[in-house]
Amino acid sequence: MEEDFKKTGYLFGGNAVFVEELYKQYLANPASVDQTWQEFFAGIQDNNTLLNKSTAKIIIPDEIKKESLNNNLSSEDLNSLKAKEMINAYRKHAHYLANLDPLGLELRKTKNDLKLNIETFGLDSSQLEENINITDEFVGTWNCKLSELVTKFDKVYTGSIGVEFEQIENVARKNWLYNKLESEVTFSSEDKKTILNDLVEVEGFEQYLHTKFPGTKRFSIEGGDASIVAMSKAIDLSMHHGVSEIVIGMAHRGRLNTLTKVVGKPYKAVIAGFISGNVFPDELNVSGDVKYHLGYSFDRTLEDKKIHLSLADNPSHLEAVNPIVAGKVRAKQDMLGDTKRSKVKAILVHGDAAFCGQGVVAESLSMSPLAAYDIGGILHFVINNQLGFTANAADTRASRYSTEFAKIIAAPILHVNGDDIEAVLKATNIAVEYRQKFGKDVVVEIICYRKYGHNEGDEPMYTQGKMYNIIKNKLTPGNIYANELVKSGVIDNNYFAKLKEEFKAKLDKEYEQAKSYKQEAHCLGGLWQGISRTRTQATITGISKKTLHDLGTKLCEIPKDFAVNPKLVKLFEARKATLTADQPIDWATAEQLAFASLLASGTNIRLTGQDSGRGTFSHRHSVLHNQIDGTTYIPLNNLSKEQAKYEVADSNLSEYAVLGFEYGYSLANPNNLVLWEAQFGDFANGAQIIFDQFISSSETKWLRMSGLVVLLPHAFEGQGPEHSSARLERFLQLAAENNMYVTYPTTPASIFHLLRRQILDDTRKPLIVM
Questions:
Q1: pLDDT for 321-341, tens place per residue?
Q2: Is 189-519 a domain of CATH 3.30.457.10?
């Protein structure tokens, strides 16, 4: 980062560190900085000017007149420097001035509050018509009147979008974002009509359900309509950027509109769920789930492009789906060989209270840049309806924004007023392009409101009377935009009403068809074809002794020039001896042989967890570390040229998110062996929601099968109750209706055959290994 700073001669303004480092460089070698800065710093020394680190402004002592500085810089150059300082200040702080709350409840700060008036920077109103000429790597090129510059930055930074980019250390990424934000985005008349039609369909479907099924829970998106339009736009933009598949994760709010408007589920299929209450065919004999938890997949086409969309199934537990989506995306990227992470991407939709309240959000964000879990960035939408059920924002967080956690990975954050649909789409456009260009997470927070209570049967006036008195008299986002288009002459007064009538007529037809609609089971397609929901026959898992010997020999080979730890040399020699002498083998050797046999037959294996490369009990040692240069050697990846891939990774210190990720990975391809290992089996309780809501129940709720293996090593070692149990009883309580295998293998042979059966079997069930 310091090298980037040293390349420029213009590091003045809102960041004290820039100026300070440049000044140090000047003191060491004046010729190493730009001529302009040489003159400026010379003036600092001559005039005893002070650098005030807390404000990053040039402070000239009272006894020294301003004219002394002007002797070194022309008036035009000095004004340009002041304007640069103003630009930096706007970029950092003007988000506090942005008009983000569509309800007008937030007390907005003023320029005086934030010291963003021109006088703060040594300028005054008499200079507004003077020209400003700036050419700078950091703030860009500006050649205009001071008044035009102020008007421009007021429009960009104090309108309907407020941004936080300063947490980004990478200068190129940050400059790109500012340049994109400061560039004009225009929408043609046809674009505007399309946007209005989208808003009509979002609101129209919600109102149709509200009328046909009054009081029935659907978790309406009304008030946050823009989020659905933005998500749909993000998909179209992603197609233009070469994305071929998107996996979406979200909670219940707005899910029915997402299923239909975004993902492509027929309206009649959703309406049929309201009429009959069935979500799956009766003959499947599964419990199913409420309609606003279900997922769906569909291929969307646009012009000559096609993209596969998947909305992941989701329980009531908010944000739990985040790592599942990420894992599924990573698996699909790996299958495609998408090493640039540009063909398959994830979109996550969050609620404001959940995003800052649920720990799995922080766990998932923290792991996202790590090599084993990187998916090239996630596009996050936060639907901030300013409430968490009945709790006000001040009750759910201490920060002004709900998005502070995103700063731990330096994700850019764009806050936008949900009533300004064009601003929402501009922010979405920037976010989509940023993710594709830089492969990093990005957050768009849409500040909106919730038209009804937490659900349609709830009364919000009990707890938010002031807010809902405003909401009940408020125009909808569709009405607001229609009025804008009428005022600008894009549409006439009848256009909006006609759109609504036409869409209602369409829904009336869908409603009639829904009365006789037969629900379909969208499962066991694609790579899952040939997989059975039940085991149809016994599985042969044995292999020949010769094959075992051959694989065991390869596993114990260490390159001669590889400086392995001497203790491991003895361990590997002992492993080899047990195989050649037909002696009993240990657990680790049996596991490694099972892995090797599957790899040799073409099955990819992925194993992650805390310390899984070596193994908590120092038993596995599937990754060898060179004692001299730190390089690694993995015997399981050196069996033959034709073998499949063995991927092993030590995870970050997380159970919830990492187990969720591996479960998601297992959903994409039944032909991969996917394993998660707890550091100690007892620590699995940190991921209890994943066990309860996904691993044990996803098949009966959503017809989603998984062959995930969960390894829970533990033993009575005098280490207390947190290292000795793994709580077998909890898993036995979860076991029902043939939903998973809970095993307690007592011999190395047992683990060998269990692991091989997971792949060779004609069904897929999660396997818990105590």
A1: 999 999 999 999 999 999 999
A2: no
